[in-house]
Design goal:
Blueprint lengths: L11 H11 L2 E15 L2 H10 L13 H12 L4 E14 L2
Antiparallel strand pairs: 1-2
Length: 96
């Protein structure tokens, strides 16, 4: 499945829709969005990754120390981390 407006070949809502259909549910509405995210502080990034561990499974400051230091140096030079946060929502009901 290709997400509308992107070149990605995987969509969270598409995967969820297929799983819900397999479980006998009918998806009546779904929506996906991508929002730009700019992080200019390594401490904020670490907090974010600790709060939502599925973003980087097994995240540990010691394990990623070298990468975090490099990011910190970039951020100190005015180059924040830029990414796109992808989210989806859907409504489903039992069909039978």
């Amino acid at each position: 499945m290709t997400c509308r407006g992107t070149t990605r070949t995987w969509c969270a809502s598409g995967t969820a829709v297929a799983g819900l259909a397999d479980a006998g549910l009918d998806v009546t509405w779904r929506q996906e969005a991508g929002s730009p995210v700019t992080i200019g502080d390594v401490g904020a990034l670490v907090l974010y990754l600790r709060i939502i561990p599925w973003q980087v499974p097994g995240f540990d400051v010691d394990r990623y120390g070298d990468r975090l230091r490099a990011l910190h140096e970039d951020m100190e030079r005015g180059r924040p981390l830029r990414a796109t946060a992808r989210r989806f929502a859907l409504v489903a009901s039992h069909t039978g």
